[in-house]
Amino acid sequence: MLEIHSVTTLTIAPDNENAYLNGLFKSNAVEYNANSESLTVIGEIPRDLNGVYVRNTHNQIHEPMGYYHPFDGDGMLHSAYFKDGKMAYRNRFVETTGLLAEKAAGKSLWPGLVEPQMGARRGWGAIGAMKDNAGTDVIGHAGKLLAVMSQGSEPWRLDPVTLENLGPDQNWAKLLKDGVAGEFKVDEHTGDMMFMNYPETPPYMNYGV
């Protein structure tokens, strides 16, 4: 069965020729649920392969403010869930504070990496100017998925199976006001997560476990 979960209205201008908004990089407006019956399987899925593979992508919704960089797009997770020789697929936007604000406004409210000076409102990231798109990294920790942007924001929690948005991780928000940058790692033996960020003020970089 292939099911459309939701459809988001895109406002990217048809004549926007940015290479990262066209072709293979063109934004996807649809969130899907799909199971093995609606997917083409080449070969056979091993019955003892059980688990979930999740990747994060940038998927811009609105016409960008200034020049668009491929790291600027809104976070969208794609998951492949394997169990008993079958597979299920889902994709979901990461519904951050910035994304929900732009959806309500119907337009981009924050600039991107290339022209952060265009922004008139406080944001996130190393200089506090960008949207918390949570589109760079995703990792499993303590039974939840955590998605973050490249330059640092509070991690956004999602259910690892359904991709249901569970909101920001309040414990991290209390611990680190400057958030967590992308590329954090989890020790597979201890479960400890190693992270960093690089805030605007001294010491300009933090590292922790």
From TrEMBL:
Signal peptide: none
Record-stated family: Belongs to the carotenoid oxygenase family.
Entry protein name: Carotenoid oxygenase family protein
GO biological process: carotene catabolic process
Keywords of this entry: Iron, Metal-binding, Oxidoreductase
Organismal lineage: Bacteria, Pseudomonadati, Pseudomonadota, Gammaproteobacteria, SAR86 cluster
InterPro entries according to UniProt: Carotenoid_Oase
CC cofactor: Fe(2+)
Molecular function as annotated in GO: carotenoid dioxygenase activity; metal ion binding
